[in-house]
């Protein structure tokens, strides 16, 4: 029924006529019913360590869940005094006391007797009985020994754990004798390493970043938290997700790091993630597996030729074969043949040859050009097959950045070396052609060149010749180092100096005018000096198609423009260009030549010795 404007509004003063009570005045039975559903909800959604999921550990799981759910129910009791007094008689506390003290060792403390004999004994609430037991008992003992009275009334110290807050432990349970996550204790130590001790694997915690307040972790918790950490991000799920049965298909280094962490507690979760991400990226986007197979084949050949019998081979492994679980042999083969360096160098070389001169550092920081870069081949007629694809190809453009900073830094340095190796011979040819016009003019030309001019020169076929030769110069041909306009103007000026018989002084019978004065020449020179330009060589004219045998081995697709090239990529390009023209501006005095000669000799003596230390001599001071 709708209310009319003239109808009186209901009054809410005083007690409500509906009989609805506030939540603080609910009956104790209703409050305990609410708490029952609350405990069921908490128990279903709470976290259980995988240690207690086995059937044999079901009694341990019950005690662990009681300690965990008791903290949640105590929070509900603090809402108001009426709820606290009602929940003290909840059946959960009676069940908890029976599970923690199954032999009723502390049952005599449940009844209080006053000094006055006339008063009748009073029974305490189940909640107070539970608090009496837990305030003097060891949590670790009760969880690991649920069917006995071990640990009752033996609590000595309070310890904070990540999943349950503050607990009490006895004198026997120091921090390194039980797992700080699931509270599983280490079996008693003995001379023999029993399977039970190996199954628990409670070892000192080294991953203080993941578990900062945990002194030791067990094998089960380390394995569980590893997979939980892997399943956080989608890329990590494809890296090592799938459980321990999936380890056999992983890279040997990832399996080694996982086994060392789970079995011996060595390393951290962050280090395992870093290794797994790097190996997954290398296996997917580089040829590291192919290089590793070649290294193992070479290792087997060396073992067979030297008559070496593999000691760790089992019955299923034939003689000369390498066990995939022998991490030491696999590591030696990878390090001996530089498998990782070859895979990274091959990836960077393929990227540059395809025309994508984008540095991995720009990929890591997200500095990508707005438009899709395009590239053209400077010598298309030298390609083995007609390539109608657009370069860089989509497969090169879709490669994601390196997953870790460590790998991105390695790829950045490898990319710089490969870019120098490919572009330096071509840029040296550019400098060699500029040198055709003389050293002084070449220095002026190089000083005025822009990076776009260098890129346009790299797009010419002559820049990729092994041996760039100066073209033959005929008598009537202009200097190849002179632009066409300058050559035409010079020939015209030379022709104007020859005297025509029609305009000769003998024909005109006149005296030629005197030459201009020196002051006039200086004024004309001052007027023309601002308009003078540095003579620039025409680098964009072909010298003729080079012979196929005279072409360089690596000729990449050259980008069409450098306008949107990011900073790190542009820096790598500039470094190669500076190295190519550095000899042009080098000092030619005897001192500098001698120093350069000594430096070249030192580089040939130790070309790759990075551990070379310059011997130190005691400083001599004048007396």
UniProtKB/TrEMBL annotation:
Ranges for region Disordered: 1-21, 469-546
Basic and acidic residues bias: start-end ranges: 517-526
Polar residues biased stretches: 1-19, 501-511
Origin: domain of life: Eukaryota
Skewed-composition ranges (Low complexity): 489-500
Protein name per Swiss-Prot or TrEMBL: Uncharacterized protein
């Amino acid at each position: 029924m709708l209310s009319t404007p003239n109808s009186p509004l209901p009054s809410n003063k005083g007690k409500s006529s509906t009989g609805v009570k506030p939540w603080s005045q609910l009956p104790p039975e209703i409050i305990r019913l609410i708490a029952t559903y609350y405990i069921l909800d908490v128990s279903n959604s709470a976290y259980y360590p995988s240690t207690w999921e086995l059937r044999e550990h079901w009694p341990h799981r019950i005690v662990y869940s009681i300690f965990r759910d008791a903290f949640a129910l105590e929070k509900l009791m603090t809402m108001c005094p009426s709820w606290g007094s009602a929940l003290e008689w909840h059946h959960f506390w009676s069940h908890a006391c029976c599970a923690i003290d199954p032999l009723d060792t502390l049952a005599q403390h449940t009844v209080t007797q006053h000094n006055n004999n006339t008063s009748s004994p009073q029974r305490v609430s189940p909640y107070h009985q539970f608090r009496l037991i837990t305030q003097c008992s060891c949590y670790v003992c009760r969880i690991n020994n649920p069917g006995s009275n071990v640990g009752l009334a033996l609590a000595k110290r309070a310890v904070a754990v990540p999943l349950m807050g503050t607990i009490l432990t006895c004198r026997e349970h120091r921090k390194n004798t039980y797992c700080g996550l699931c509270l599983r204790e280490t079996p008693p130590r003995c001379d023999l390493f029993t399977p039970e001790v190996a199954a628990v694997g409670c070892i000192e915690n080294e991953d203080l970043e993941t578990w900062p307040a945990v002194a030791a972790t067990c094998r089960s918790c380390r394995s569980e938290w590893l997979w939980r950490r892997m399943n956080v991000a989608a890329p990590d799920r494809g890296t090592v997700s799938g459980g321990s049965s999936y380890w056999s298909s992983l890279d040997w280094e990832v399996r080694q790091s996982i086994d060392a962490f789970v079995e011996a507690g060595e390393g951290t979760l962050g280090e395992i993630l870093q290794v797994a991400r790097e190996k997954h990226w290398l296996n997917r986007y580089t040829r590291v597996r192919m290089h590793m197979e070649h290294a193992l084949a070479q290792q087997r050949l060396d073992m067979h030729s030297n008559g070496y019998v593999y000691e760790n081979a089992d019955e299923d492994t034939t003689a000369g074969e390498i066990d995939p679980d022998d991490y030491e042999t696999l590591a030696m083969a990878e390090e001996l043949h530089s498998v990782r360096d070859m895979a990274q160098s091959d990836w960077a070389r393929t990227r540059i040859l395809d025309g994508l001169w984008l540095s991995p550092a720009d990929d890591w920081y997200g500095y990508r050009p707005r438009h899709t870069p395009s590239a053209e081949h400077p010598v298309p007629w030298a390609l083995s097959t007609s390539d109608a694809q657009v370069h860089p190809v989509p497969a090169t453009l879709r490669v994601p950045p390196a997953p870790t900073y460590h790998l991105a830094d390695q790829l950045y340095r490898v990319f710089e070396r490969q870019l120098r190796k490919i572009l330096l011979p071509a840029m040296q040819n550019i400098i060699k052609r500029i040198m055709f016009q003389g050293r002084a003019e070449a220095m002026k030309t190089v000083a005025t060149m822009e990076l776009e001019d260098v890129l346009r020169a790299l797009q010419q076929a002559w820049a990729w010749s092994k041996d760039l030769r100066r073209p033959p110069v005929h008598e009537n041909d202009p200097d190849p180092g002179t632009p066409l306009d300058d050559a035409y103007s010079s020939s015209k000026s030379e022709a104007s100096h020859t005297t025509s018989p029609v305009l000769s002084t003998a024909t005109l019978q006149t005296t030629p005018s005197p030459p201009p004065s020196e002051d006039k020449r200086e004024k004309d020179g001052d007027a023309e000096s601002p308009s003078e330009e540095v003579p620039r060589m025409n680098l964009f004219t072909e010298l003729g198609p080079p012979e196929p045998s005279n072409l360089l081995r690596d000729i990449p697709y050259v980008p069409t423009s450098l306008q949107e090239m990011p900073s790190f990529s542009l820096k790598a390009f500039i470094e190669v260009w500076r190295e190519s023209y550095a000899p042009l501006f080098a000092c030619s005095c005897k001192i500098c030549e001698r120093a350069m000669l000594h430096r070249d000799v030192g580089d040939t003596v130790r070309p790759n010795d990075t551990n070379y230390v310059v011997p130190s001599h005691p400083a001599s001071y004048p007396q």
